[in-house]
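[agent] plan:
  1. take the single chain provided in the ticket
  2. run structure prediction with default settings
  3. attach structure tokens to the ticket
  4. add a short note for the reviewer (M.T.)
[agent] executing step 1
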Amino acid sequence: MTKVSFASHPHLLGFESLDRLVERTAKSGNDGYPPYNIEQISDSEYRITLAVAGFVEDELSITIEAHQLLIRGRQVETSDGRVFLHRGIAARQFQRGFVLADGVDVTAAHLDNGLLHVDLKRNDPSTVVQTVRINSKRAR
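[agent] step 2 finished; step 3 output follows
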């Protein structure tokens, strides 16, 4: 069976990487932790909010790698002599990724009452008109 994708359309040239991106995103495992919201603040602004209760700023990192926003959390397990009769809150690490379109930049991030807010802004692309010169081919 032949795999058919939108990037195989004859009028869409050079979109193979977008097709691979959609496939990679569909395959990425998602265990639901931490839960998150994505809000549209305005026509060009967005906010991602992750519920990261129990994490402090030093245990969280935000990076952008190849158009992918990666938010990671790693809590340090401390055994300061406490004895737990029940342990339902585990120190858990996570990595949550979001693919960013060209022109979308992270403008700010802040931690407030166990919620990590990451603000994004989409910059309007400039329109460029380019003229291509046609050269006639001479017979030799």
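[agent] step 4 note for reviewer: The longest helix spans residues 16-27.
[agent] ticket updated
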